[in-house]
Design a protein that fits this description.
- With about 475 residues, this protein is of the alpha/beta class.
- Helix content is about 25%, strand content about 25%.
- It is built from ten helices and 23 strands.
- It has helices spanning about 1-25, 120, 130-135, 180-190, 215, 220-230, 240-245, 275-290, 310-320, 350-360, and strands at about 40, 45-50, 55-60, 70, 75-85, 90-95, 100-115, 140-150, 165-170, 195-200, 255-260, 295, 330, 375-380, 385-390, 395-400, 405-410, 415-420, 420-425, 425-430, 440-445, 455, 465.
- The strands form five sheets. Strands 1, 3, 4, 6, 7, 8, 9, 10, 11, 12 and 13 form an eleven-stranded mixed sheet that branches. It has a four-stranded antiparallel sheet with strand order 14-15-20-19, with no helix packed on it. The protein has a four-stranded antiparallel sheet with strand order 18-17-21-23, with no helix packed on it.
- Strand 17 (about 405-410) and strand 18 form a beta hairpin.
- Helix 4 (about 180-190) packs across helix 10 and helix 8 (about 275-290) packs parallel to helix 9 (about 310-320).
- It is elongated, with a radius of gyration of 24 Å.
């Protein structure tokens, strides 16, 4: 309670300071409307800021001949919908008030990404991420722009943060999300247009802090899950507190896609994650007024220890269920881990490329075929065998090695036995001598499993189970 009261007082001081500024005038923009920014191409940007109350404001943009004329309201707020052209630049934007003006230079038009989540997304050169440390000296691309959102929390929604856009170079990329940068690099290389990437992530955070507080408060299940999250000195835990400061200010800034990597902090409350994550996606899309494509990363194998041996497997299953939400895609990471005791796998470039490939295939139509990891579709029992079919596979499956690992089968007694499995085209045939009348199959369904079943394009098959039995089940 003491922490939340401090947040409220700080928010009140911020509101009072804004009132002072608007009362005495002077054009001011949110920090993310800055020189070097990237605006989404062929979109309507909600461009806004502050000046004195009831004052005339003019907006001049170099890509169009017409000047936008408007007035501030009684609170000194002005806003306009600015249409953007096809990708290109650099351009200039000038906002002119009665007694001041703001000029933005080196503005690019292209594709804008928002990357968010917990430390697995935030991981950077400052985390001693080797892939990024090796990349840093070579970063010099004026067609990639970075916006790193400062970590701060608030009990009330904010309209601004202090951070501004930077051209990608060895200095600006220090501390920036490795996944965010490498995803932008891949997209820029393929699309040949400017790419802006926003990093708004905070280590150790549960999903509840990233969606509006009223969504959690108005939902019985989400309220119960949020109550389980505990306070920590290095991260906020109250619902909505990071939505308010790190996401809400950006609403109206058009995006090509959101890349999301989070879930580790919700493993203990796995049973509600699909609903929680679906509500997060819905609330963000509502705030933007757009069905923004949402591409996310399934949590990697890791020995959690505090929650049985399958809590993370159930969380991954919940993430897979979120694929029922329109315009979503999931990256599977079971093949990218070298140490199950390290919650931060080193292979961030591969994760970034898989995220970018989802966008390249789904949004831009650059990729065709099996660019998504296969996920379980359905199963059919034929005698003592189970025939398993998958989505996202058209060119066949392959087992890397002599036999398939982490595959189990059970009968009506719910006792799982190590199974034999073989690939037939796009299907998997599963059986075991101990189970004459099979009922269920589980594949890679533990916290640490790193199975060896892939699409022929090299993407790992997502872990799955064909049953819906609750809790832990014995495997032999």
């Amino acid at each position: 309670m003491q922490n939340i009261e401090v947040i409220r007082r700080c928010s009140l001081l911020l509101v009072l300071s804004l009132c002072y500024v608007t009362a005495f005038g002077g054009i001011r923009l949110p920090g993310f409307f800055s020189s070097h920014m990237v605006l989404q191409q062929q979109a309507k940007v909600n461009f806004w800021g502050w000046d004195g109350a009831n004052q005339p404001v003019m907006i001049v943009v170099s890509w169009q001949s017409d000047t936008i004329c408007l007035r501030t309201d009684s609170n000194g707020i002005w806003s306009a919908g600015v249409e953007t052209p096809v990708a290109g630049g650099p351009y200039q934007m000038i906002v002119i008030g009665v007694d001041s003006h703001v000029e933005l230079t080196d503005v690019m038009i292209g594709e804008v990404l928002l990357c968010s989540g917990q430390s697995i997304m935030a991981w950077s050169s400052l985390s001693n991420h080797q892939e990024m440390l090796e990349e840093l000296p070579n970063i010099q691309n004026s067609d990639i722009r970075l916006l790193n959102v400062t970590r701060r929390a608030s009990a009330t929604p904010q309209d601004d943060f202090w951070d501004s856009w930077q051209v990608a170079d060895p200095r600006s990329a220090v501390g920036f999300s490795s996944i965010g940068y490498f995803a932008a690099k891949r997209l820029q290389d393929e699309l040949k247009v400017p790419v802006g990437v926003i990093n708004a992530s905070w280590g150790g955070t549960a999903a509840e802090v990233w969606l509006p507080q009223q969504i959690v408060a108005g939902d019985t299940l989400l309220r119960e899950l949020a109550a389980i999250q505990t306070a920590s000195p290095d991260r906020p835990h109250l619902p909505g507190t990071l939505w308010n400061t790190m996401i809400h200010p950006l609403a109206g800034y058009p995006l090509a896609a959101v890349f999301w990597y989070q879930g580790e902090s919700n493993v203990p409350t796995w049973h509600g994650y699909s609903h929680l994550f679906s509500e997060l996606i819905r609330s963000w899309r509502t705030a933007w007024g757009s069905e923004i494509p949402f591409y996310f990363v399934q949590i990697a194998p890791f020995s959690y220890r505090h929650c049985g041996t399958s809590c993370a497997a159930f969380l991954r299953e919940q993430q897979t269920k979120a694929l029922s939400v329109a315009k979503t895609g999931m990256v599977v990471t079971t093949d990218l881990v070298s140490d199950i005791k390290d919650i931060h796998p080193e292979k961030k470039v591969a994760v970034a490329n898989r995220l970018a490939d989802l966008a390249l295939g789904e949004i831009y139509g650059v990729l065709e075929g099996d660019y998504k990891s296969p996920v379980y579709d359905r199963s059919v029992i034929q005698g003592d065998k189970v025939i398993v079919s998958f989505k996202n596979v058209s060119r066949g499956l392959l087992i890397k090695g002599d036999t398939l690992n982490h595959i189990y089968i059970a009968g009506h007694d719910r006792q799982f036995y190590r199974a034999d499995a073989k690939v037939e085209g796009n299907t998997l045939i599963v059986s075991a001598g101990e189970v004459r009348t099979p009922v269920a199959v589980r594949f890679g369904f533990t916290d640490v499993a790193m199975p060896n079943l892939f699409s022929t394009t090299g993407l790992p098959v997502s872990p799955f189970r064909t049953d819906d039995w609750p809790g832990e089940t014995d495997s032999r």
